[in-house]
Amino acid sequence: MSRRGVLLVISGPSGVGKGTTIKRLFEIEDNLYFSVSATTRKPREGEIDGVHYSFKTKEQFEHDIETGEMLEHAVFSGNYYGTPKSAVEEKLLNGKDVILDIEIQGAKNVKRMLPEAVLVYILPPSIEELKKRLIGRNTEDEESLAKRLHTAYSELHEAPDMYDYFIVNDTVENAAVKIKDIIEGERCSKAAMQEVLKQILEEAENLA
Amino acid sequence: MSRRGVLLVISGPSGVGKGTTIKRLFEIEDNLYFSVSATTRKPREGEIDGVHYSFKTKEQFEHDIETGEMLEHAVFSGNYYGTPKSAVEEKLLNGKDVILDIEIQGAKNVKRMLPEAVLVYILPPSIEELKKRLIGRNTEDEESLAKRLHTAYSELHEAPDMYDYFIVNDTVENAAVKIKDIIEGERCSKAAMQEVLKQILEEAENLA
Prior knowledge:
8 helices, four-stranded mixed beta sheet, alpha/beta, homodimer
């Protein structure tokens, strides 16, 4: 009896420590996969197609958007970046759990195209603490700090309706363990267990 | 910041090993509570009101059903048994996770009255194995075995639409650990985190 993989989308405001938390998550939990993103930017030295990125022309990428093959996409510095649906689907079918690290608009698209997706939002312990973390980075001038905080505020208003789970990132370790707990619980969800259920119902039919 | 307790309803066909699994769950996880059931049967020697059961008259119990104070109830040997809503609500408000061990019709009522309830169904590894376990009990004559299996079949058809999580009881230890995982994940669910979300949104409002 085989279960379907769990598709976990992780979002959070910038400065919340999402990158570090996900890095720790991959250290404490095996059987997790990042899907390889597609992009239209040129490969850099040493980057391998299908490993670091799936490199596409602008025409191919736009075709994939039109046909629904991109679960979500965004444009940075004039290049497309996105998550191909078929690569994610293949892993899920093989019982592998897939992690997507994307912002709130992308998460909304993924949920629309794959309703089984489980959406996790990482919260700061407080807004004060988020401010401190952003200032601590020393990479923000005042204007960009204000802009990031403004984005965080409006995200925090949208997140409660959209996301399934909320994690307070008080420490990286706690936050990573909580995401691990969510994945382990979701491995028993109706969506993940649909094949197992089908098999036992068939067996019951044959014996009844 | 305080979270709301998780209300977990556990069901499964007779013979699946639900009782042993729940016993093991309480050994490996603290902070779990059974709610005290209400009943109209007479207290036995040594039974304390409010500890073993909340003892009620038939009139009191029927009044509680009418006012919606009974999350679910059933009749055995002419006596009412049920789960009082206020006792469960109080524990959830105080951040305590509550386990209810009830059959499928009761679970349906609980979900209707408290939509945040998380419904877990325990499956046998196979129908053959369920048969073996029922026969192994040596307490079943052929007629009652056939009746229990028939009930199990019809439950298995109803469960996939109703329940949120499905656990295969291959070993008691695995099944107990999986329920523990589900509880830990659900402690981060939207329902459990509503107060935390409210507080951080209020803080954001005040700073914006």
